[in-house]
Amino acid sequence: MPATLIQHPFMSQGALGDCNADALVGAMLEYELGLADVQEAHGALPEGTHQALAKHLHGHAFDLDAIASGIASGGNAAIPFVKQGRAALPAELKRYWHQGATSQDVVDSALMLLLKPRLASIDGLLQRCRSAAIVLMQAHDETVMVGRTLMQQALPITFGVKVAHWALGLEQARRRLLPLAESGLPVQFGGAVGVHSGWDDLGLDFMDALAARLGLAAPVLPWHTDRQPIHALATALDAVAGAAEKVALDVALLTQTEIGEVAEPGGEGMGESSSMPHKRNPVRCALIRGAARQVHGHATVILNATAQPLERGLGEWHAEWAPLIDSTLLVEGALEQLAVLLEGLEVHPDAMRRNLEITGGAIMAEPVSRLLVPIVGQDAAKRISAEAAETARRQGLSYAEVLKAHSEVKGRVEVEVLEETASPASYIGSSKAQVTRAIAWLKNI
């Protein structure tokens, strides 16, 4: 597959280098040497064993192609990796390599080691997004714009409150992922059937000490077919992807030529078309949404692998690896784009005002109708407010001017009251208060 052209552009480019085949082998080696260190500290291996193993294997050139080929016969990368590691050791050390562990212990733990720094990076990006969103919220808490439902104009809101909802979605997802990023990725150590065969109660001591040694969480029990940790991680990543996708979708819709209320940050070649020089496509939004859609698909694979048979999965465990890593890299890549998008988002209040008036004031028909009901009755109020909006639209007049001149309204409502009621800025409800409330919650870290 031409991954560098059709898959990797949606991912974090820096993270790709940290999660390649060499990195996985390095994580498996870290696990094995950490296990030996813990076992030696508990008196289960002769003194100096860990140092001797590290001396022979640190810097050893593992044959990645041979490991890849070996997966076809063993089913996972740990088996050929362990064989190569043992072959590189002198005879007196071979029996101390990979003691008490099984291949799933190695692969699960190596994946957790790979993903832990990625989650820290994702959290940092979410904090960048939060900071950028707060700046936008504060700048535009009174910038009135069209609120749209079912893709149609509905009633006025402020751009600040729209951003507030974006920020809350992202922060809620962040707080869901944060416990996993800080201490929730567990080590795996259980041996062949998850009960530390041959080590008795000492196996649990090894597991807890190994978690501390590797900077991972100590689980209650080995979790070979208890995939709740993977389920939690996959769904938390999917929540972040969904929150990012919401922002990208809204921004993309608002950048449409006929709307033009916002624009993506510019840059050399950004948004260019292969054939139409005039276009400025919302490419960052496209990359964010493309990444998020893939994450949603990967989450489905992982969710369908949650129930695994007996003491070792048969294909379910194997199906988790690529979706889990890809989801993490895709989320990180999407957030890299989103942080730049929010930090440089161009907001066009003049276009927002223009679009509020595009229907001739019909967007204010509801409050005008409510004002007129006590004066002319329910049916007449609805009819007048609609008639005035249509006249304003056709004749290019302001809604308030048409209403003031309407034969059934003229002289019956104070001009100032009518003008205020027909003004979108007078009908933004709790928008400003919501921004204040949202900022307070976002800053309560």
TrEMBL record:
<comment type="similarity">
    <text>Belongs to the class-II fumarase/aspartase family.</text>
</comment>
<feature type="domain" description="Adenylosuccinate lyase C-terminal">
    <location>
        <begin position="360"/>
        <end position="439"/>
    </location>
</feature>
<dbReference type="Pfam" id="PF00206">
    <property type="entry name" value="Lyase_1"/>
</dbReference>
<dbReference type="InterPro" id="IPR022761">
    <property type="entry name" value="Fumarate_lyase_N"/>
</dbReference>
<protein>
    <submittedName>
        <fullName>3-carboxy-cis,cis-muconate cycloisomerase</fullName>
    </submittedName>
</protein>
<dbReference type="InterPro" id="IPR008948">
    <property type="entry name" value="L-Aspartase-like"/>
</dbReference>
<dbReference type="InterPro" id="IPR000362">
    <property type="entry name" value="Fumarate_lyase_fam"/>
</dbReference>
<dbReference type="InterPro" id="IPR019468">
    <property type="entry name" value="AdenyloSucc_lyase_C"/>
</dbReference>
